[in-house]
Amino acid sequence: MDEIFHVPQAQKYCQAKFHEWDPKITTFPGLYVSSCLLRGVGLSGMGFCGKDMLRLDNAFFGLGVHAVSYRLLRRRLDPSKAAAQSLMLSLYPIHFFYQLLYYTDVGSLFWVLLVQDIVTPGRGQALPGPWRIAVGAATGAVAVLFRQTNAVWLMFSFGTAALQDLQASKWGELQGESVSLWKLLTFAKALLLESQRLLLRLGLLLVPVILFIGFVIYNGSIVLGDHSNHEVAPHWAQLAYLSAITAATCSVEDSALSPRWVMQFLRACFGSLGGFVLSASSLAVVVCVVHKYSLAHPFLLADNRHYTFYLWNRFLSRPWVRDVLAPAYLYAAWYISTRLSKAQSGLWVLIWWVAACLTLVPAPLLEPRYWTTAVIMAQLHFYDRSWRSILTLSLAYLTVNIITLAVFVFRPFYWPNGEIARFMW
What we know:
Elements: H1 3-14, H2 30-39, H3 51-74, H4 79-90, H5 93-98, H6 105-119, H7 130-146, H8 150-168, H9 181-193, H10 195-202, H11 207-219, H12 237-248, H13 259-270, H14 273-292, H15 298-302, H16 307-316, H17 319-343, H18 346-360, H19 372-380, H20 387-410, E1 413-414, E2 420-421
Antiparallel strand pairs: 1-2
């Protein structure tokens, strides 16, 4: 749907018409600048900036995502399994679909993952030096030019890099799966006492973030154009949707539906008085969130091309359905946190949740592609999957991709005004 804005704007940049800007575009011009640089200014008349040629840019960025994913997975997996998992993630349906269109999503994901690869070391590797941090900051600036919310993921990389630095020094007690009040206070104390050293080593990563905050203050909004349709709203139900999709796509043989994990969750809830009080309170919060803060943006209600239109109208628009799903959302969030903490520290998981919250909750539109960065980032840091799980998930993703592409290409429909429309994520 957004190609009707992105393609003409990229073609203007190819023609060196940098002063012409579509006020409906909400993102910075990172995608258009990259397309222009790849082709050369003034070459649009030779067909290099046609719609199909521009779509190849996202195929290029998709290969980049695959390569960087492999590098991140290679830190803890053997080469063959890292390659297989990175290929599996390239088939993640929502990410795969937008590799075939001219959208900002794939390039945005590539630059975010590249920052994470540059500034955070693998196990047993030395902490990045000043040169790598400077390169990471420049890469982060490019990421923000592709999508504004990447400023949050740049802070995520800063936070995880700072956590690894502290864990490698005298603050080794910050490691471990659990996140207790004592550990949070210790983490806050460590950040305060080590703030000068951490800022000297990692502070360049925050420069693009500070510049972006300055832009928001000057602009009065996060987005460039179309402010009225992109106002910030407390859409807390986004975290419930993220929990559901991440839990559903993280494993097969040891999935969230496994009796072992269900029983472990029930024991955590009912095994002690403290666990019961905590789980009951958490469930009450989730019920309140999905009942009161499940928002329906006008774009969602008006555009019947997107699957979310039907998901909302037939299911999620009914308050009782949202309330019934609340325990499943709570379980999905617990499952993700537990599985992630098996491979990462509990504080790393907390930083991931904070980043997901800051990027998703202010967005009033129910849009699956908004979850992609958080989902892929979590998948890249999960436990080691078995070959059976990798193969099964890859085949499942491939099946979904074939179906959605077939529907998109071969099952168009017509609006009352005669305009053709296609079903898509």
